[in-house]
Every structure is written in structure tokens, then in C-alpha cells.
Write a structure and sequence with these properties.
By secondary structure, this protein is an all-alpha fold. The protein has a domain at about 115-165. The chain has helices at about 10, 50-65, 85-95, 95-160, 165-170, 200-205, 215-225. The two termini are about 75 Å apart. One of its GO terms (biological process) is mRNA cis splicing, via spliceosome.
Amino acid sequence: MSSAHRPTWEPARAKADVAHISQVQSKYATPTHTRLKFRRPGDTQKRSLQELKAELEAGENRAFVERHPDAEMPHAKQPKLITLEEDADDEDLRIPAANDDDDNEVDDEDEDDDEDDTEALLRELEKVKQERREQQERQEQSAKTQQQLSREEEIARGNPLLNLERALHGDKIPTASEPLDTPQERWDDDLIFRNQAMNDENALSKRGFVNDLTRTEFHKKFMSRYIK
């Protein structure tokens, strides 16, 4: 039963109770793995399975001899002999030399074909590299030309002798319908609270002041200009 719902129960029982003398300890709380595991001789050596098997068999044979010194060892294993088919080996050894010559000729032809293919691939690769270099050079030349034209245009615009209209009127070049002496409008000329102290009653009556700002002429013009 869990006592997580009463964490202050044990302290409230006080030390006078003798029940606290005997304690129950879980096996998971006991110290374990108190000794390090060291390497033993032979652990780091890489031996094949055949060697390990031979060593195991030798140990079994020694133990059997020690237990039964007079008995014959029944489990003594004789070394296995690999039997080879001598007839097949003789036929392989008696291969005529003409076949070797034919194989050599075929190998030479294959090598020549491989060399031709390699040369063709190298020529194609060199051609692709040359095309890429030419394309890169054309792009660099076009970029240099564009940069030079931009620089010349900037110099011409900055020189008042070459660009007289820009020197006289700035960035705004007058047109035929716009007079030269027209003053430039300010960005806040059409604000609602600008020029409110005018004494012209006709102008005041034309404005049509209202208490609701969403019904003013300024709000209508603003909405028609930007939220159309």
C-alpha cells in the first residue's frame, strides 16, 4: 500500500515508538557490483573458432587421460584430410596452350575497347568543361559591361553640365502641363487639423465639420485613396 497520500505520517509517530527499530530494506537498495571486472589473459587476443575448438578438444583429451590412464581414448579425433579429385586436377592441368593464346587475344581486344571508350569520355568531358568556361566568360563580360554603363550614367547624372535640368529642378523634371515655378506639396497638406484658424467663413462652411471623424471629408478621401 502506498503512503504517498500521507507524507507526514511517519514523523508524526515520533521516536518513542519501537516500531522504527526494525527496518525493511529493499533488495534494490543494497550495494551491488562492488568489484570491477578486469580483463583476463587472452581476452584481447583475436583467435579463430578453429583454434578455440582445437584448444577445447585438447583440454577434453587431457581430462579423459587423467581420469582413465589405462583406457583407450575413444574421442580422439584424427585430422581431417581434404580429398581432392585427382582426375579433375589432371584434366585441368592438361589444358592445351592454344586456349591460353585465345584468352590472351580476347583480353587484348577488351583492353583496346576500354581504352577507346576512356579516350572518348575524356574528350567529351573536356568539351563540356570548355563550354562552361566560355559561358562563364560571357557572363562576366556582360556583367562588366552593365556595370560600366551604370557607372557612366551615374557620372552623367551627377554632372550639372551634362544634366542641366536635374541641376535646376532636382529629381522632379517639369513637364509641359506643369509650370516650372510650381512649389512642391508637403506630405501633410491635407491633414484634418491643418489650417484650422482661417477666418474665411466660406471655407469653413465648405468644410462641413461634424463630430464623427469617420464621416469627415478627410476620412472619405483617405479611404478612397488607400482602401479602394
